[in-house]
Amino acid sequence: MSDQKLDILLEESLSICHEALDQLIAMTERIATADQNEWIFGDIPEECILIHDWIKDCKTLGFIPAAYVKTFSGGAADWDIPISINRIMLEGEWDIILNIGHIVPHEVFIPFA
Question: Are 2 and 47 in a shared domain?
Fold first, then answer.
């Protein structure tokens, strides 16, 4: 694994200046310390590292209907699945949104959440 920091990778690969980046961090077991953030994100300022609070910060945009879920899952599931996104993504003025990593529906991990 490279020791190159995220800010440098984005600046070199996409010509995105790290001073203009905000990071929305999700699916962590605990909030990182300032030293850990610096190790991961390099010179991106602490105030640009935003924490995803899935309880308080999400807005439901709609639902995947139960009938579709039932058909798609071969009958294994038959309930509506909410489509939610962090309000930060909806309320911010973003030029580009990048997902580094992967997004997995939470039902995969916690089927009865």
Answer: yes
DSSP state of 113: -
pLDDT tens figures, 64-87:
999 999 999 999 999 999 988 889
Phi and psi at 12, nearest 5°, equal: -75, -40
* Rounded (10°) angle between helices 6-14 and 34-41: 30
CA–CA separation, 42 vs 36, rounded Å?
A: 9
58 in the same domain as 68:
yes
Q: What is the largest CA-CA distance in the chain?
A: 49
Q: Is the whole-model pTM more than 0.70?
A: no
